[in-house]
Amino acid sequence: KLWAHLCSKIAMVRPRCLPLALLAALLLGLSRGPSFAVAARRQLLTAAVAPVAAGAVATAARAEEEIPLGSIPKDLQAKEVGKQVTTPHGVIYEPLELGTEEQGPRNGPPRGGSTVVLKYTARLDGFNGPIFDSSTLRGQRKPNKVEFIESRLNVDPSLPNCVFEAVKLMKVGAKGRATCPPQVSYSEGKVAFDADEQGEVKKVPAGATLYYDLELLRIIKP
Fold this sequence. Notes:
Blueprint: H1 2-13, H2 18-30, H3 34-65, E1 85-86, E2 92-97, E3 115-124, E4 131-134, H4 135-139, E5 149-152, H5 161-167, E6 175-180, E7 193-194, E8 203-204, E9 210-221
Antiparallel strand pairs: 1-2, 2-6, 3-4, 3-5, 3-9, 6-9, 7-8
């Protein structure tokens, strides 16, 4: 048991020294008989591998925790219509159309700092709920009366982090729906905020879940 304890400590502090520790323990076991050596080897391997495995799990957990709001893992993708994808921060994205099959930075998905052309409608109380913001409402106040906006991902303060996360799952031409928990809303959902002046509601309460219909029209700058 003493050797098992020491071997476990070596695995955590000096992983490269683990083979020497196992060899020393095995030689000691042989001096006390073959059956003791087999039992000692089994116990030592179990004790040595456990902290290494636990360390790997802890490292992966820390990496996930360190993903900032508005960002997603590089390998997270939306590949199937109707199949929901959930980001580490709880954004649930459901693709309705996958968009272009072409590859390349201007075909998407975009990344943080990309400038994109986006259509969206934002609602409360579900995807059929009252509208509090949309690209159409914003665009109608412009001289050319457009129904889209240009936005720089993770930089544009007029959109919440949940939209950035959802758009990073989309290719050009894609359409989808995003359910956004409070922590990726404006101010992380901690305070109420004013809706668009022409919206169906005038104020969005703190802690509200937001619902976005999204369409990625173009990536201007990858």
